[in-house]
Amino acid sequence: MNAELSQLIRIQEVDLEIKRLREEVSSLPIRQKELEDHFAASVKEYLDLKQQLDDALANKRNLETDLETEQQKHQKFKSDLMKATNEREYSTAIREIDITSKAISSHETEILKLMEKIEKLEAQVAEKTPEMEARRSEVDRQLAEWSTAVTDHQAKLDALVADRTPLIESLGREARATYDRLSKMRSGTPLAEARDYSCIACRMTIRPQVFNEIRRGEKIITCESCGRILYFNAAGGGQ
Ligand SMILES: [Zn+2]
User: Fold this and answer.
1) Residue 2 Cα to ligand 1 middle (Å)
2) Is the backbone of residue 168 left (phi > 0), alpha (psi -120 to 50) or beta?
3) Can you give the residue ranges of every domain in the chain?
């Protein structure tokens, strides 16, 4: 194969790998943020549950204090009833006993409802705690893994960028200009494989005579449709 053509193929491989590694490296902050945001959302759900539990417990304490007050009043009116000496005192005590009984009963009902709610919330919080801890360590593990991979990618990237310089400098002026121009025009793929009598990049059919020339690889031939430099890959199963 034409030496320049094989150089061009190699440069495109290097460039595609550089592009891929740069994308990997530059996407790290975005991936980190997405993961942290997702974790923060799950923490929020957990913290909301804990807040609901704290509120319910505070509510229950207040109701218990009120209940105690009503029970004391109830006892007082019961003893008032025993000591009643006239009709007025008697009916006042009866009325107050009735009012405090209703208050006691309603407080007790409320407290029971709250106890059920508290029990459910406690179970939910307890259930979520290990899950939360596991999720956090999974997040940390993932972050560490990405960070290691990016360090690795950065090292490969630096090596490839260093390798690229002598490769591109070894090209003739014309081939280099063609490569650079096509690379810009065709978003980093200035070369395309010719396979089964067509350009695999744009699907344009290649005349048999031209295809045979590409297969010989003696000179640089470009696609009539997309302008890419065409090459034949003997190992790629093309005919
Ligand atoms: Zn083409």
Assistant:
1) 20
2) alpha
3) 3-169, 187-236
CATH class for the region spanning 3-169:
mainly alpha
Identify whether the C-beta of residue 86 lies closer than 8 Å to the C-beta of residue 155: no
Phi-psi region for residue 217, left (φ > 0), alpha (ψ -120 to 50) or beta? Answer: left
Residue 49 and residue 131: Cα distance in Å, rounded? Answer: 14
pLDDT in tens, 91-131: 999 999 999 999 999 999 999 999 999 999 999 999 999 98
Please identify which residue in the block is written with the tokens 């006892």. Answer: 75
Instruction: Report whether 174 contacts 5 (CB < 8 A).
Output: no
So what's the pLDDT on residue 236?
65
The structure's pTM equals 0.67
Residues with CB under 5 A from ligand 1 (ion): 199, 201-202, 204, 223, 225-226
Kindly give the distance from the C-alpha atom of residue 199 to the centroid of ligand 1, in angstroms, as a whole number.
5
| Residue whose structure tokens are 């280099």 | 176
